[in-house]
Amino acid sequence: MRSKKKELSPESEAARRLQLFEEALREMLRLLEPATGEMREERDMLSRRGTEFIYRTLTEDVCRQCPKYRECFEKRREKTLEEIASILERAEAKARVDGRMASEVFRKRCVFFQPFMEEMSWLFRMLYQDRRWEKRVKGLHQVMRAQMLSQYLLMRECHRLLSAGKELEGAARRKLQSALLRRGFYLLEGREYKDEGGMINVTLTLGSLAGSRRMDGVLQALQRCYGRSFRSAGGETWVRSGRRTLSFVEEGGFQVIFGVCRRSKAGETVCGDTFSFEAYDRKRAVMLLSDGMGVGEEASRDSRRLIEAFEALLEAGVHEEYALEILHGALLQKEKESCATLDAAVISLQTGTVRLLKAGGTATFIRHQNAVERIGPSGLPPGCLPEQGFDIRSRKLYDGDMIIMLSDGMLDFEAAPGQEARMEDLIRQIRAGSAQRFAEELMRAVPVPAGGRDDDCTVLVAAVWERKPMGTGR
């Protein structure tokens, strides 16, 4: 008797294929893993192998023809090697060889000084260009690996979402079943899991005992059983009659309210800064700010495209850190140079922590209850150099804290002659509790340069509040 081939459900087949893709990407990442000591070899290349190559070539091509060869490379060998090493050390700092880098004593003693320096200059340029190309190739290799890693993490997360969780059984199922029955629903199936942020997700297959009923009864039953507030993942407000499968997500412990104020450079009608506020699945709130190079339409276009691309990756589920790496790799391939900074604040609505990603932007400020913290700028905008890194910092936020993100025009006043006020002082003086009012008051408080506004100015504010239990709320 032939055994029947087991048929997979669409969900099981999707999970199986994602797992295979995930395993293939993992193997490719192993192949791209940098060899041990590779980065050290890159740093030492010019000083060790490069110096030896230049020394051998100079000896064979120039110095052996010199009547003072034995004196320089036998009697005074150590002094000669020290002189060559000294010239190369200065050349590496200046990225070129110049006769003035040699000591006065060496210039007087060397019979073939001019051909010696010309040969060294040619050899140095050849090695220096080789080194630059090698670093560029390694940088692109790192970008490619980062992009592949982001795809691997996305596949792993999709696979986990399809296969994660456990069936509701035993006392937990009976407790939820009883709570639902008292509110007019009967439970057929149930499944729960915790996502990467530690928030509970529940999928229920249930029906209504008497026609359509409001969703509030299901949410009350979940809150009674789990001791936490939930919301419908699909936004439904009614449970229609018949068998229905619905998903519910635990509400985060924090909520975020945004505010914005901006103004263009004097004489310009278009602001080159682009900003964005977004909440993804009510699990994380994201605040983005990009400052395009220059002002006007072109700066606005560059910053807007960068923001839109970053948002699209976040919406697809790519982790913010790897989304930035993917954008960086894509911008490196552009023929036309464009330069736009990117500041991102990603706030977990479950834990109240914030991750600040800074790629060329100016300082970001966090106003706590009794202090103002400045988080300084770091690094270059995405797409500048293959081997560049990005600054990522984490902070814990508490009820009433504010994140203030600025474009560089807002901080120009600090560099004015005789200016003693700092941005921290202005932020500390503002008492507005509303994010929007805070942004407007900060814009008014910043001194305008004597010559008028010479750059675009943007203020973004995110006010973070703890969610209060029903009946006590803010």
TrEMBL record:
Q: What is this protein called?
A: Serine/threonine-protein phosphatase
Keyword annotations: Hydrolase
Tell me which residues make up the PPM-type phosphatase domain.
255-464
Q: Which InterPro entries match?
A: Bact_Sigma-Reg (IPR052016), PPM-type-like_dom_sf (IPR036457), PPM-type_phosphatase-like_dom (IPR001932), SpoIIE_N (IPR045768)
Its source organism is: Candidatus Anaerobutyricum stercoripullorum
Enumerate the GO terms in the molecular function aspect: phosphatase activity
Give a yes or no for keyword Hydrolase in this entry. Answer: yes
